[in-house]
Amino acid sequence: MTSGATARAVGGGLLRSRRVCVIPPERPIIVTVDGPAGTGKSSVSRELAHRLGLDFLDTGAMYRAATAIMLDKGLTISQPDPLVATVMSADLHFDWTQDPPVILAWEQPIDHRIRDADVTEHVSPVSAIRELREHMVIKQRIIGHQHPRLVTEGRDQGSVVFPNAEVKFFLWATPGVRARRRAEQLRASGVQGVDEARLREEIEVRDRSDSTRAVGPLVCPQDAIRIDTSDLSFDEVVTALESAVRTRVLGS
Ligand code: DC
Fold this sequence. Notes:
There is one protein chain. Helix content is 46%, strand content 18%. It is of the alpha/beta class.
């Protein structure tokens, strides 16, 4: 058996044990998962990390935290220097005792703020600021050093941050499928009058902006395994990634 959460009753309670680990416990391994929004990257990467017994890094959370800081401190992207200086002073890092790890700014959790609509609206241009990206790349490499058994997801993890990662994935889905998934998520969370066509336009705009920026653009690294998730279930995607890692690492 390579995976599968196991749960057993202990003293009347239910103890959820960690999934069976296919990577030897002392072996360092960096797995990168890049791709556009709406491909299920975050949840897939997190589940993959669980199944393999690795740590999980959500680098989008770091750009979102920088954007929340900009908005909450009354800064704008037209003032990149104070913005980058303020983000540096926040010393963004994660509390790894939580699952998923919680992002902290000035030692305070900021995770409750980073998925708000205004943050989502502004994050793409913020993430195109060269000096900010340089700062984030350094931070992410330090995290990779401190957590050498890592699944890290974002846009530039395999292309820029960890070019020597052992296994690289690039997840893809058509803009129509991604808009439908997002619409379903919003409806499920109680949002009324979801406009799927508009969501699709926003996705296409964000893709263009993320793929054409000068620094760390969204690209599929040459040595990445590209997976089109359009017609796959969540479990099928995770299982495909898991078995690709196992084959690369263990040769079976
Ligand atoms: O994955 P996400 O939606 O949380 O990412 C938010 C934004 O951050 C998205 O517009 C792209 C950007 N991002 C980036 O430029 N580089 C990364 N490594 C991760 C995210």
